[in-house]
Design a protein that fits this description.
Chain A is α/β, with parallel strands linked by helices. Chain A contains 13 helices and twelve strands. In chain A, strands 2-1-3-4-5-11 form a six-stranded parallel beta sheet, with helices on both faces. A six-stranded mixed beta sheet of chain A has the order 7-6-8-9-10-12, with helices on both faces. In chain A, β1, α5 (76-91) and β2 (95-100) form a beta-alpha-beta unit. In chain A, α1 (8-15) crosses α2, α1 (8-15) packs across α3 and α5 (76-91) packs across α13 (303-318). Chain A is elongated, with a radius of gyration of 26 Å. Chains A and B meet through α4, α5, β2, α6 and α11 of A and α4, α5, β2, α6 and α11 of B. The structure holds a DNA duplex (30 and 30 nucleotides).
Chain lengths: 341, 341
DNA sequence: TTTTCCAATGTAAGGGCTTGCATTCTTTTG
DNA sequence: CAAAAGAATGCAAGCCCTTACATTGGAAAA
């Protein structure tokens, strides 16, 4: 299959210059006369030369690759983030090594090492679940950051060489909750399934909004689902069982669109009118929101903006510039048909 | 940031052996006595040695990386495929370089070259849209296949070093259509938005099933939507306009779940009961199908099986074995609430 | 014209690892 | 017990680039 490849030596011979000169035009060095540059380029063109990435890597100690870690690249939201990042990084001349880690720490440590072994120039952690409550569990991030910049999307961690781009989840949920209350709906159920960094921020936003409105928060106003949120049937069932135990509510704010979908299904089963009997607000404003009927109101956390900022910050860091350690963007409730006008 | 890394020389010194021996234990060579192996491993462990991937690549001419190309990694179906592949390949010790190419040929050629430059060991094209009608446009695939094995998921192309794993889309749609007809529904609209390899197979399945049942196919029985299928609103509008022109139907078979979602929305707007007034069948059996109400009947093309087979075939090829050039699996209609029982 | 200086180019020393071949030492065989 | 075979290890030549430093030649300065 692979015959001996064309090397820099072949080009140097063909163009009648030294390999150093060839290397210089390869790397866009200034100190090459236009005439030689053309000669070399012609030779490359003619023989279909492609520099050997490994040798290049050895010399430059980089292969222009960024590692992207996500728990599950098929999650609607994470997939979108990965997509944006890949596009943006490619524009900057970087390739992406993708690592789906699942949710266990052991896997994450392994993946992290893998990426480091492959000499990526930076690592992006997509999703807030990469930060652990137990400070020791975050060691794998600190270790990685000792070697390459680590970017967190939707999570925050104060450490050297770690940069965080987040959405202001707290305020988004606070505002959404407040808005519902102002519309006269105060029996709100907060449905969530993660204690991640942003998960806790969202929850806090809910609690504070309720408190702020002077509504005493019963503990049955929060429902935690401990399984995979993609298991729509199970989440729906849990909502039903909650309701059937006498915990009624007039609205659901979910920490994720997928969970909100279950709330919609729940309403359908219970024959509740949306939004009259039950208002529903999701989070992430994913494609799902437009797919369901009635269309789901959802909090948009401006994923594309986050990704753009993350990328430019990373590029800045790699370029040796001082960059902000944390950047926060405001979210926004997109009102559709599951909330009162 | 980066202090001088531990190299094979350090280990060799520390263990009191030659670097050749260290390299041998690194590569699991047979000819090393157990005692030395242990000594070396201990030294590695102690000094936290990580072999330099570039140097390794230079020597071995591989970095155990597979390139994955997909038009859009955030597409629900493609994302799932990428996810499966990434997991499977990782299990085999390979990393994945992800390339989202969009739908233009120029981008694809560029991406392909990029992957080849980075010396991937194989390339996987996820999605049937990588094959072009115009034979010349497929040159980029042949070129790539001249260097590394190319795997096609859901597409077929007969060429050296190209391996295809597909679902029998033709039969799946043929059967689904036939089943509807047997249930007494013969006014069926086939809704599609792609002329890709599998797109054409599906369409043929529909046409043949109708013909086979002796139903004369009016050309208004097929509706092609030329934009992005994610634009649910636009697809819905086009369905409405089609209907309003007098082209009525009692069922929709869509070439993709996302399109089917639009059919559901259309029914809702027209106040058609599902499945009594309108039956709907999607394709891919994606997560979307379970999210909507009523839940969508959809053709499952066994993506996970396809990915497994693709991976094992690729591993076989890389291992120098003769492997089947084309593997086809049967699909299956998953009946949910949008089709009559 | 001679001296400086600088742009353009070449020389050669790595960068860290793999591997064919040579060498040494241990076993087996006759 | 000598000779042959085999196992374990070392030597050194790559693999293909990058780049600090040396060299050259011509233009600018004196």
């Amino acid at each position: 299959m692979k015959e001996r490849a064309v090397t820099i030596y072949d080009i140097s011979k063909q163009a009648g210059v030294s390999i150093a000169t060839v290397s210089r035009v390869l790397n866009g060095s200034e100190n090459v006369s236009e005439a030689t540059r053309q000669k070399v380029l012609a030779a490359m063109e003619e023989s279909g030369y492609t520099p050997n990435a490994f040798a290049r890597g050895l010399g430059l100690n980089t292969m222009k690759t960024i590692g992207i870690m996500a728990a599950d690249s098929s999650d609607l939201y994470l997939a979108k983030g990965i997509y944006y990042l890949e596009q943006l990084l490619r524009n900057e001349g970087y390739d992406c090594l993708l690592c789906c880690t699942g949710y266990t720490l052991a896997n994450r440590i392994a993946s992290m090492n893998l990426l480091l072994t492959k000499k990526v120039d930076g690592i992006i952690l997509v999703g807030s679940n990469f930060i652990y409550e137990n400070e020791e569990d975050n060691k794998y991030i600190y270790d990685a950051a000792a070697q390459v910049p680590v970017m967190l999307l939707n999570a925050a961690l104060d450490a050297p060489n770690v940069y965080c781009i987040t959405s202001d989840d707290y305020t988004s949920v606070f505002n959404a909750t407040t808005k519902l209350i102002e519309q006269g709906i105060s029996e709100i159920l907060y449905l969530y399934n993660s204690h991640s960094y942003s998960g806790k921020r969202k929850e806090a936003g809910f609690r504070d909004a309720m408190k702020n409105a002077g509504i005493k928060l019963k503990e049955d106003s929060l429902l935690f689902y401990k399984g995979a949120r993609e298991d729509v049937g199970a989440v729906t069932a849990q909502l039903e069982s909650h309701w059937d135990k006498g915990h009624h509510f007039k609205a659901v704010i979910a920490s994720d669109d997928t969970l909100a979908i279950s709330a919609l299904k729940f309403a359908y089963r219970k024959n509740l009118q949306i939004p009259e009997d039950l208002a529903v607000i999701g989070y992430n404003n994913s494609f799902l929101a437009e797919c369901v009927t009635p269309e789901l109101s959802s909090i948009d956390n401006r994923l594309e903006t986050l990704c753009q900022t993350l990328t430019s910050t990373l590029m800045g860091v790699l370029g040796g510039n001082e960059m902000p350690k944390q950047t926060v963007f405001a979210g926004e409730l997109i009102s559709r048909a599951t909330t009162p006008a």
